[in-house]
Design a protein that fits this description.
Elements: H1 18-29, H2 32-40, E1 44-48, E2 54-57, H3 59-64, H4 78-81, H5 106-113, E3 118-124, E4 133-144, E5 147-156, H6 157-175, H7 185-202, E6 206-213, H8 216-223, H9 225-242, E7 248-253, E8 256-262, H10 266-282, E9 285-287, E10 290-292, E11 296-303, H11 311-327, E12 333-335
Parallel strand pairs: 11-12
Antiparallel strand pairs: 1-2, 1-5, 3-4, 4-5, 6-8, 6-11, 7-8, 9-10
Length: about 325
């Protein structure tokens, strides 16, 4: 379906004479305050004259288009320097005006021509095999020395999204044990203290497990640390499958694990621990043509509705119960 024609006020197709263009560009480039501020911000800055030609570009914009200098794009239109697929073939596109309706920036541009600011997100298709650009574009009209200009502030949204993804990945790494994928000890304490306070405030039950792999040193001594890592990962998987999604699972250190179980009484937690113990005992872990088998000991502590215990106290009680389970022959659950 062909695009509807753009309003006549959208932009003239002519280009300013070379001498006048150079004069306009010099006026902006010699403004030291402008240059300093434009290069201090992380967004691309582009200034266009009335004929929609580039008269100024900051370093951030040059980085977006991978261009060595603004002199090489002086007098061009945005679609031309961004290699938009519509820049040359679309009558109302960047090759003859500013930015066409294909990249959803028309409203911002028309508002700018009417003397208003606007912001639009633009997905720009490009030619010559270049990847598309996802840009957020702010347009601001400006009248200077008798001439009309438009200031473009341009953010690479794709880069913003990549940075957000990277930050989220780094955050995940900071709270996760890399081997098992469970939470680490620091995150356990952070979440558990908040959950314990919530349980006390609303008088809800709460339980804690301390788990230890029985004779784990023998696994490492007999089969090597690779086997030990396989056992730790397999145990983490069984814990995920056996326990609730709302339970917070953490590798406490070495072969020890801790679990925080919100909204559950000590008795129900004890039953859940027994199921987990049985699931681990039945587990077979393939390793170099053999099946490794392990057992675990579990200590369980709980806080009844109306009780007031810190997470440290609950963890200490669960650890004492774990010690009793070890002393009782291992592969068992003890609740205090």
């Amino acid at each position: 379906m062909p695009s509807s024609p753009l309003p006549t006020r959208f932009a003239p197709a002519e280009r300013v004479a070379e001498g006048e263009l150079r004069q306009q560009a010099t006026q902006w480039q010699q403004n030291q305050t402008l240059v300093l501020l434009a290069n201090a911000v992380p967004d691309g800055i582009l200034i266009l004259n009335h004929y929609r030609q580039v008269v100024f570009a900051n370093q951030a914009f040059l980085d977006i288009i991978d261009c060595p200098s603004q002199d090489s794009i002086l007098g061009q239109r945005p679609g031309e320097i961004l290699h938009c697929v519509h820049a040359d073939i679309e009558p109302g596109g960047c090759g003859t005006s500013l930015l066409c309706q294909h990249c959803n920036a028309t409203r911002a541009i028309l508002n700018s021509l009417d003397g208003n600011q606007d912001v639009e997100e633009v997905l720009l298709e490009r030619r010559d095999g270049l990847p598309p650009l996802n840009l957020r574009i702010w347009t601001t009209p400006l009248h200077n020395n008798g001439e009309d200009y438009t200031i473009f502030a341009i953010k690479d949204v794709h880069l913003e999204q990549e940075n957000l993804t990277l930050m989220q990945s780094l955050q995940t790494l900071s709270i996760t044990d890399p081997l098992t994928g469970l939470f680490n000890r620091r995150h356990l304490y952070h979440e558990a203290e908040r959950e314990t306070e919530r349980a006390q405030r609303y008088q809800h039950p709460l339980a804690v497990f301390m788990i230890d792999i029985d004779h784990f040193k023998q696994v490492n001594d007999t089969h090597g640390h690779e086997a030990g890592d396989r056992v730790l990962s397999a145990l983490a998987n069984v814990m995920r499958a056996s326990l609730r999604h709302s339970d917070l699972l953490a590798r406490y250190g070495g072969e020890e694990f801790a679990v925080l179980l919100p909204e559950i009484t000590a008795e129900k937690a004890h039953a859940a621990a027994q199921r987990l113990r049985a699931d681990v005992e039945a587990m077979q872990i393939p390793f170099r043509g053999m099946n490794l088998q392990i057992t675990i000991s579990i200590g369980v502590s709980g806080m009844a509705p109306g009780e007031s215990l810190s997470f440290e106290n609950l963890l200490k009680q669960a650890d004492d119960a774990l010690y009793q389970a070890k002393q009782s022959g291992r592969n068992c659950v003890v609740m205090v």
